[in-house]
């Protein structure tokens, strides 16, 4: 299956930001690789907000999302919609608290 250049860049930035950042791996509980594999398509900047898959939600439920949010870099924000990330967390039954900072995005609602 062919992979688009946009998707390749997206995954490269994410992998470098999360797996290359030992702080995220060491400090944040959960499966970062699984989070990337299962949920990446739902948080890409282009496109509409869509309901996540059961696989994505399974990973989201076992990841320390506030910890991950505290390690979001400018590079990650360049390819991930933090608004979509907050939507996915809520859709998976693990909403981020009002006022949580995910990179430069501040979670509204709740």
How would you portray this structure in words?
This protein is mainly alpha-helical and 110 residues long. The chain is built from seven helices and two strands. It has a two-stranded antiparallel ribbon with strand order 1-2. A hairpin with a 2-residue loop joins β1 and β2 (105-106). α1 (5-18) runs antiparallel to α3. The chain is globular, with a radius of gyration of 13 Å. The chain starts with a helix and ends with a strand. 31% of the residues are buried. The model is unreliable at 1-13 and 18-23 (pLDDT under 50).
Helical content stands at: 40-55%
Sketch the major β-sheet.
Answer: 2 strands, antiparallel
First CA to last CA: what distance? 40 Å
For the largest beta sheet, what order do the strands appear in spatially?
1-2
Poorly predicted residue ranges: 1-13, 18-23
Shape field? globular
Tell me, rounded to a whole number, the average pLDDT: 81
| Percent strand | under 5%
* Number of helical segments with 4 or more residues: 7
Helix/strand class = mainly alpha
């Amino acid at each position: 299956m062919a992979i688009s250049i946009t998707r390749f860049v997206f995954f490269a930035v994410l992998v470098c930001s999360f797996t290359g950042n030992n702080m995220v791996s060491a400090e944040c509980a959960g499966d970062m690789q699984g989070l990337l594999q299962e949920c990446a398509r739902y948080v890409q900047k282009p496109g509409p907000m869509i309901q996540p898959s059961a696989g994505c939600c399974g990973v989201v439920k076992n990841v320390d999302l506030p910890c991950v949010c505290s390690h979001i870099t400018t590079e990650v924000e360049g390819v991930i919609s933090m608004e979509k990330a907050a939507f996915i967390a809520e859709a998976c039954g693990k909403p981020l608290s009002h006022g949580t900072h995910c990179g430069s995005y501040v979670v509204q609602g709740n």
